[in-house]
Amino acid sequence: MRAVVIGAGIVGLTTGLALRHAGIEVVICERAPEIRADGASLGLWANALAVFDDLAVGEEVRCIGVPTEMYFHDPAGRLLDTPGFGSEDHQYLLVHRAELNDLLADAVGRDNIRLAAGFTAYEEHAEHVTVHLADGSSEEADVLVGADGAYSAVRAQLVPGTPAREHPGHHAWRAVIPATGITVPEDRLILGTHGCRGGYIRTYDGRVYWLLNQFNSPPLTGSPKQQAMERVVHLEGEGRDGVLAGLIDATPEDLVLHNQVMLVPPLSHWVSARVVLAGDAAHAMSPHITAGATLGIEDAALLGRLLTPTGDVPVALAAYEADQIPRYAHIARLSAAVEHAPTPQEFAQNYVAFSHWMISQRPQRPGNNRVGA
């Protein structure tokens, strides 16, 4: 069996790695001329690390990350307790996106990745799918995986009329900077006023990752750095010499990343007989639950479990969709409960309820319970 994966981001590369471990020939097509990653750092929860362990890269991933805990404080610095949940429900690994992408590209094998090979269209046939690329070439495969993000071109053909849409008023700012000249004695995540959440986390290599996001933001003015500085007062208070304000102020303007948060609407289907969506292409959600990468990695694990070299592709993809669409409807409800929590205490409680549910739903090992083998 041969698979073409569109997108060499974290989900696309993990999908390629999972399929190769399943004994499937894989080519990953990436429109950019190099392996790269937009964004700064990301959190990997225990269920994602379990997938990487199964794919024999878990220890390498842990070497480029730092164990961190997702506890929240209010602007006065008080810890928001979450009774009824254990420490394991708060623990995750913080890694740098670009370093994780490079690690996964090496694990997949760079000879299996085609760069500067953007996807344009596919033609689906009874026994195979033809994938057309922007350079005029094409690839023949038994299955096509669209792992090309929220703006997925594969989704545009598979499920027309479902472009990514703005999460109105929801913006995010972040950066990774050296921890020079600023004392960062601990990691801190803050639930503030005016819909603002943010904080800072020390990385494994001595740098600091800071982030800030706001729901129901007023219209933006000024540069991304100025926008972040205007909002930090809702997290650390007017006139306070806070660590987060200091980190933002110390960040060069060109390192401040700003995003209007985009969402993928619920889809009527994720698959056809030989085409399937994974990761943000299928279910891009708000980053306030900090689980997008982890959930996409689980998609990759499930595809690696269901597809086999001699299996029935349409049956495997139908099983994938039957599992995932109800699951993500539930995730959307849990995410909304966090977003719309009326108080910081309820936000923290709903967040840990989500993380507890997510890590307790560990993906099955890729070698088990394959369909059609």
Short description:
The protein is an alpha/beta fold. It has eleven helices and 17 strands. It has helices spanning 10-21, 46-54, 58-63, 97-108, 153-158, 224-236, 243-250, 280-283, 292-306, 313-339, 344-360; strands at residues 2-6, 25-29, 41-44, 65-69, 72-73, 91-96, 113-114, 119-124, 129-133, 138-141, 143-146, 165-178, 188-191, 196-202, 207-214, 257-263, 275-277.
Low-pLDDT runs? 363-373
DSSP strand (E) fraction?
15-25%
Largest sheet: 6 strands, mixed
The name of the CATH topology of the largest domain is: FAD/NAD(P)-binding domain
Report strand order across the widest sheet: 5-13-14-15-12-16
Count the E strands.
17
Structural class: alpha/beta
Number of domains: 2
User: Looking at the structure, what is the overall shape?
Assistant: globular
Mean pLDDT: 92
